Amino acid sequence: xxxxxxxxxxxxxxxxxxxxxxxxxxxxxxxxxxxxxxxxxxxxxxxxxxxxxxxxxxxxxxxxxxxxxxxxxxxxxxxxxxxxxxxxxxxxxxxxxxxxxxxxxxxxxxxxxxxxxxxxxxxxxxxxxxxxxxxxxxxxxxxxxxxxxxxxxxxxxxxxxxxxxxxxxxxxxxxxxxxxxxxxxxxxxxxxxxxxxxxxxxxxxxxxxxxxxxxxxxxxxxxxxxxxxxxxxxxxxxxxxxxxxxxxxxxxxxxxxxxxxxxxxxxxxxxxxxxxxxxxxxxxxxxxxxxxxxxxxxxxxxxxxxxxxxxxxxxxxxxxxxxxxxxxxxxxxxxxxxxxxxxxxxxxxxxxxxxxxxxxxxxxxxxxxxxxxxxxxxxxxxxxxxxxxxxxxxxxxxxxxxxxxxxxxxxxxxxxxxxxxxxxxxxxxxxxxxxxxxxxxxxxxxxxxxxxxxxxxxxxxxxxxxxxxxxxxxxxxxxxxxxxxxxxxxxxxxxxxxxxxxxxxxxxxxxxxxxxxxxxxxxxxxxxxxxxxxxxxxxxxxxxxxxxxxxxxxxxxxxxxxxxxxxxxxxxxxxxx
Length: 577
Prior knowledge:
Layout: H1 2-5, H2 8-17, E1 22-24, H3 71-77, H4 86-89, H5 99-104, E2 110-114, E3 124-129, H6 139-152, E4 157-159, E5 165-170, H7 175-184, H8 210-225, H9 232-237, E6 243-245, H10 249-256, E7 283-286, E8 300-306, E9 312-319, E10 338-344, H11 348-362, H12 373-380, H13 382-393, H14 424-428, E11 430-431, H15 449-463, E12 473-476, E13 490-496, E14 499-504, E15 515-522, H16 526-540, H17 547-554, H18 556-565
């Protein structure tokens, strides 16, 4: 893909003569009906110079190669840019692929899985995840995914916390058919998993406001900037046939620019190189007050800053968020992103690239538990991190602009048609797939969440809380935190069969980390913990104090005392269905 999207100015004629290459023009949701749209592709030359705004500073000396590297790093280095041995494993008659190929197929948007409910010989299949920047999905793509899930999956589609779809249960011999169908429906699974930038989030509601539209366009450009360029994806699933988008000139220019030592010269992967990133990398874009994207849980959080007339002027940048952790290993932890600085709007792609390269060059590659950028920033501190990023960026960051308070906004439902009543608990709850689909799951999450929500609502009614009151609940089957339970007011983190850690203290605005309150709470014993917590919240909360704010103010010692001494309340008949 690199040879086609980065050299239009010099070799456009040669590119268009390649009979294997088909092109489409993409602009938000307006997909063309035809795949052969070369006449719409803008021809542009690529300049290697940066805007004159950049004040050059010294390019950082790249650190010495880490002496110890994880097994995955060796697999990536020997893979010929994420091809080998996956290309050979897909051709075998075995229902599964080997360990090296299992690591590589993640970069193609897939995980090898098996049915955790079954005993005996493992029944292997694959999960495929799409990549849909800012959550945009064409009707053609949705219908294709719906058909693929029925024909080749287990008949379900899952919408993820990162605005993508997951199709589960695809067997190995059908992978190529499914992936190629997704590509030909103007989408992709490339980079939906693996050690690279994942799907870029933005508020999904198609509001006509300039800041929302600018946020979505920025998310699309950032996604394009950090898309792999070496063509391994199309070699694998389309036998080398290349499907290209007409990228904006500013994206191509930012990717190619090497003024400050960010790129691998003469590499098919100018930003990623042979090793890609140390671990997954997550980015979200939003506007002030709208925290529908959980902005502080991302490696990079980008916030549009406008003038008094609502015209976008630049961006505030947060860095260092992340949810994953490991049970009983206190050196792993969830972390909120923190302010890095402000950049003018014309510099955003260069700033993002500088942050990514800083993680690429300095993130740990010896122990994957500590390879996320949050651990690099925690180790260095934000000041050192900012200094190194500025060297790759080429100038100093401006001071962070003041922002109003964040608010979690749910866009579920048909906004124009007023859907029927939905329990507020359901509107903000999230769960990961867990059993039987995820090999990391310790206990249930997705399948058990509907019952948990019903039980929470029953406790609400029992202690006298109103039907329109709610708390943010998130459930995950293991400590990796894919459903972001460490931001919840009430988080359930699987720590054994039918057992959960209880996390408390997040806020409805998704701006505060929760803390671990209790371990090894059996699913059948939830009411023994929840009843006293919700009862005293109702009785002793301050005006408009959320459940998470209440648990933080009161303190865990007092909460534990209430749980230990709880003898129950007199049940009253339910008033609401």
